[in-house]
Amino acid sequence: MSAGSMQVPVGRAVTVRVPATSANLGPGFDTLGLALGYYDQLDVVVRPKTGATVEVIGEGSADSAAPVATDSSNLVVQSIAHAFAHAGVAMPGLDLVAHNKIAHSRGMGSSSAAIVSGLLAAKGLLEGIAVFDEDTLLRLATELEGHPDNVAPALFGGLTIAWTTEEGPRCKRLLVHRGVSPLVLVPSFTMSTKHARSLQPESVPHEDAIFNVSRSSLLVAALTQSPELLFEATEDKLHQDYRAEAMPQTSALVKVLRDNGFAAVVSGAGPSILVLCSDPAQRVEAAQLVSQHEETPWNALMLAVDFAGATVVPAK
After folding, report:
1. How far is it, in rounded angstroms, from Cα 51 to Cα 90?
2. Is the dihedral of CA 182, 142, 111, 31 positive or negative?
3. What whole-number distance in Å separates Cα of residue 225 and Cα of residue 276?
4. Alpha carbon 222 to chain centroid distance?
């Protein structure tokens, strides 16, 4: 029996947990990503009726400032449909409950988490019907997101180096040194990734490109072997300065932190800030410094590096 002629049984359920991510990490623009121990959870059940219902709890809920769609246009539903189409299987009716903790439009990979949760849910629902290997999941996620730097760590955890080839996206997962202690500072205001990207120039000076190649190479070593090098390794000349005027509060706090010796960078497209501390004590010091910065309130999240990536409870 072909996959296309098989159906997912009514009542089959799956639960997916996906980590937040931070991309770029300073100099590694559109290349480096880090999975963080802060999670969205998705519960999906196959129902008799066609179509999909979505209940959102937390970020993006109906009573939030920016509610997300709760019909077939929801990004999670679209991601599930994308995976079913790839498998050549008709998507059944679905009831979804999204427990969202990852802040939206803050540079913490919320869209990547939605995409990966949908793909992993489809993988679980299609257990025994279709197979999704790691390369396929990365390709499908990149097709939906447009670039692999956030979806790679969301899928696989740890530190990821992502790149694209003629055959599709690729990534390498690396273990992070146990001393690395991330601090994420989340403001109340948001930033559009599309707008942030529009501020990038089409070309940069040759010396700036060389500068970032050296720093991104050093950053891989700092994150995996030598955390004491994190401050110098997180210097950047390719994207953060160009975007600074669009998020002045973020730029100002990054400067305060770096002036005090902390390896602070814009998290993804911002406006959140990632501080890569070399040990837990340094992270506490950074958080204390931020608490004195009264111009803008920041929610300080002391997070672990996630090493597992997205996880799915097998379908029953």
Report:
1. 11
2. positive
3. 14
4. 21
